[in-house]
Structure formats: structure tokens, C-alpha cells
Amino acid sequence: MVDQTPAPARQGRALIGLVAASALAYPLLLCAVQLLVVQLFQPDPGRLALWGAVAVACSLGMVAAVRWGAGRRIRSPWLLVGLVPPVLFELWVCWPLLTR
């Protein structure tokens, strides 16, 4: 399938996707720091679930922005399968906190 979009429009879309994805880098970093604090220094299951959900949303948004900029389909089952290992690791780390 040949893309009929003119080259300047494709480049503009790619740059907008890159800017949108890079805009989510700092919120994702903030989520990582907050998750570290919640897990190690101030154990709180509610805040842990909140920051974990925000981190997943930022990750999905970043990937979706990059895929939109590239002109590809956003919904992908492999994107969701890729979230399984980090979720399992976080569950393993937080299991003692959740079972108290």
C-alpha cells in the first residue's frame, strides 16, 4: 500500500508525534520517582496504585504519540503484552505491602 500523503505533511505529522511523545517524558520520570518513594520510603497501597496507573497511562500515551506520528495503527495487542513484565515485577515488589 502506497502512502498518498505529501512528504511535508508526513514530516509535519512525524514531528508533532515526536513533540507529543517527548512532552510525556518528564511526567513519566516523575511517576518513576514517585513509585520509588512510595515503594521504599512511604509504603501506601493507594498511592502506589495511583502512580502506577499514571505511569502506565503516560507510557501508553508516549507509544501512541510515536505511532500516530509514524502514521501507524495505534491499537496493538503487543503494546499491551509488553506491559505484563513490568506489572508482574511491581506486583512482586509490592506483594508484602499489599498482603499486610
Tell me about this structure.
By secondary structure, the chain is an all-alpha fold. It has one domain (18-98). The longest helix has 25 residues, at 45-69. It contains 5 helices and no strands. Helix 2 packs antiparallel against helix 3 (45-69). The chain crosses the membrane at residues 12-36, 48-66, 78-98. Keywords: Membrane, Transmembrane, Transmembrane helix.
Write the layout of secondary structure elements.
Layout (H helix, E strand, L loop, with lengths): L6 H17 L1 H16 L4 H25 L7 H5 L2 H15 L2
Distance between the termini: 56 Å
Profile the largest sheet.
Answer: none
Structural class: mainly alpha
Total domains: 1
- Number of alpha- plus pi-helical segments: 5
Low-confidence stretches: none
Question: How many beta-strand elements?
Answer: 0
Order of helices and strands: HHHHH
Overall helicity: over 70%
Mean pLDDT across every amino acid position: 79
> What integer value in Å does the Rg equal?
17 Å
> How would the global form be characterised?
elongated
Strand content: under 5%
Keywords: Membrane, Transmembrane, Transmembrane helix
Transmembrane segments: 12-36, 48-66, 78-98
